[in-house]
Amino acid sequence: MFLSPHVHRLHRTAVVVLGLAVAGVAVAALRVDQGKSNVTIVFKQLNVPVEAKFKKFDAQIDFDSGKPEAAKATIAIDMPSFDLGDPEYNKEVLKKEWFNAAQFPKATFVSSAIKPGAAGKFDVTGKLTIKGKTADVSFPLTIRKDGTSQVFEGTLPIKRLTFNIGEGEWKDTGMVADEVAIKFRVVAAQ
Q1: Chain Cα centroid distance, residue 166
Q2: Measured in Å, how far apart are the chain's first and last C-alpha atoms?
C-alpha cells in the first residue's frame, strides 16, 4: 500500500512520541519530602568538627529500583540558606571569600551515572558546581524503602579549595580544613 510522504512522516512522529512516552514511564520522577530531607556539611575549624545545614534545596530524582542505570538526579542548593547557627557567621560565609552567594546563589550536582555497587550500595558519579567551579565527583549512595517512600543517603567528600571556598587568608587549611563532607538524606515518593 502506498502512503503519502506526509502520512509516512506522521507515522514516524507517532512512533517516536510513543517511544518517548514509554521511556518516560520506565524511570519515574519522585516527589521530595522537604520536611524529612536535609543537606548538611561537616568540616573542621581549628581541628574542631563543625556541622552546618542548608535550609533550602531542590532535588529532582528519577529512579526505578529495577533500572538504576537509567536513574538521574539533580540537586540545587540555595547557598544563602546556609546556617552555621549564628547570624554573624551566616553573613560571613556568604561573602566573596567564601561562597560569594551574591554572584553564585546556587550550588548544583548533576548525576552522570548511578550504578549498583558493593554491599547493596550504589556508585554515583556526576558534576558538582560550587562558586562557578565544576568538578567530577563520585560517592557511594544508600537507597532504602521506608513505607511508600525511598530514602537516599550519602556523603560526598570534597576539598573546599577546589571550589575557591575560602580565598585570601582563608586558604590557610590550618584554620579551616580543606576536607569537607557534604551529607544528605533525601526522602522521596511517587
Answers
A1: 22
A2: 45
Closest CA to 144 of 121, 117, 125, 110: 121
Nearest to 170 by CA among 112, 67, 64, 93: 93
Alpha-carbon distance of 52 to 38, in angstroms, equals 11
Distance between CA atoms of residues 137 and 115, nearest Å = 14
SS3 of the chain: helix, strand, coil, percent, to 5:
25, 50, 25
Class of residue 28 by CB neighbours under 10 A (exposed 0-12, middle 13-18, buried 19+): exposed
**Which domains are assigned to the chain?**
27-189 (2.40.128.110)
Of 47, 92, 73, 49, nearest in space to 150 by CA:
73
Per-residue pLDDT tens over the stretch 73-121: 999 999 999 999 999 999 999 999 999 999 999 999 999 999 999 888 9
Asked if residue 82 lies in contact with residue 52, where contact means CB atoms within 8 angstroms, the answer is: yes
Helix or strand or coil: residue 28? coil
Which pTM does this prediction carry? 0.83
Which residue is associated with the grid cell 548525576?
A: 111
C-alpha to C-alpha distance for 95 and 98, rounded to whole angstroms: 6
Q: Where are the alpha helices (DSSP H) in the chain?
A: 5-26, 87-93
